Amino acid sequence: MDGFLPHEILTMITDKFSDNSATLYSCILINKNWYSAAIQHLWSNPFTLLCAYRYRCVDDYRRKAKNLLTTFIECFTDMESIKEESVSLYLERKHSKKLIFDYSLYLKEIYFGEVQDLLCKWCHLKLDDCKFSHDLVDRMAVGIIRFAIQYCPRLKTLFFPHKFPSILLIQSLAFARDLPQLRNFIWASHYSHKEVFIALSKVAHNLELISVDFRTRRNCLDEGSMDAFQALIRSQHRLKTVRIRKLNIGMDFMLELLQTQSSSLEWLSFEHTDFGSDDSKFGPFKFPQLKRLKLGQCVTISTHGLASIIMADLPNLQQLIIDPGITIPIKFMKQMLQKHGRSLTSATLKLSNSNVDIVSSICQNLRQLDISMSKELIMPVVCMLANIPNLHSLTINSLSERDPPFLGNLFNELAKHQLSHLHDLSLSNMDSCHVDSLKKFLSGSRPPLRSLTIGRTCVMTEAHINVILDHLKDTLKFLTIYFDINAVSTKCIGRARRILRRFYRPF
């Protein structure tokens, strides 16, 4: 390896291995040029890198956790001070290390849970045994996060679970000079929404992702908190993603607010959100850059709210995710697919007799499809799949509670059509099937599968595994199936591991 490559090439190489700490550590040993390129990745997200790396020796892991935490803390203060001052109103920086040893010049991402976990490992504690705000580990974790907010101007991501005290977050944001590079803010809390939003809107104006779990679905936010949330959204210059959980709000009101970011907004996600009755008369709405829309678990939406989404102008919508548990009237689902289906390349839908034909005729650009269906729809759904010319990835979830004929009938119908572009297939919540049906499907459809996943409710035998390997040995790389470990020979398992890149049996 040439140690004197141009800086641009070194940056490209280290960027590619930014999540591989072992490779980055090797890079810093080559020479000072490699060191300067690699150290930025090692020190921009050190807690995640250490948490992601699995050490066989627990003592070695604890030693590395201690070294990282000690080095980080001593960039700002001494060990004793952080134990005592973590709940103070303002954290004064007592230490300032030399350039290459100062984490505050490099740190970009910090997650409260990871810091807490490393501290527990260091102190030989189990995370479940720690009572927040009453023990040393949690006080130190809070102190580390607060020092990062106040003194690390290159911070790019802040992640706070509901356990992080809102009052300390407010204080830290209030004393932060500025966070010009902050792009991602993820937060969950029952309390102090107004104060957090006000403090954040003063120091961060370039957020690209705002993810808030309001944890108040049964109640609406008070007027002050809602005004502060509006001010935060409107204060951003390049907002791309908004994720909302557990909130009661009118759909028109939400879309009217988000339309202030329509020139940059690309992804909207709602989960456990109640879009109840809304008397607002805004719209029609236009989001020219929106590419992904998700209506996730436990979303309740009124007919007026559905109409607002249907009538919205979404010319570049590529991915539509509608959780199977959401009840959407047939008429509205039809209208939604007719209005937005032509641009979709990815969809997650619950299929019914009324929308199978619409997907088949309108959604011709789909490359990825995740569907939930009953066994009565097997034949029309298979015809629909055969009519989508460039379908690369398919996930089918059975709603028939593992009725015995489902998987066998599905394979028999699929065998009648060529699926020459299908690379990834995932089947879940299904019964076991006869090996002949599987063989008929693979020989009839001849799909060039690279990945095959069959849920653990379907028990495979050695015969099934051999059929899969015989037909897909030239293309298949990843196989996830459930089988009785005592009923499959070591020879068969060895063959699978030689052919495949990954052979996995879920527990």
UniProtKB/TrEMBL annotation:
SUPFAM superfamilies (UniProt xref): RNI-like
Domain of life, source organism: Eukaryota
Alphabetized Gene3D superfamilies for the sequence: Ribonuclease Inhibitor (3.80.10.10)
Protein name as it appears in the record: 2649_t:CDS:1
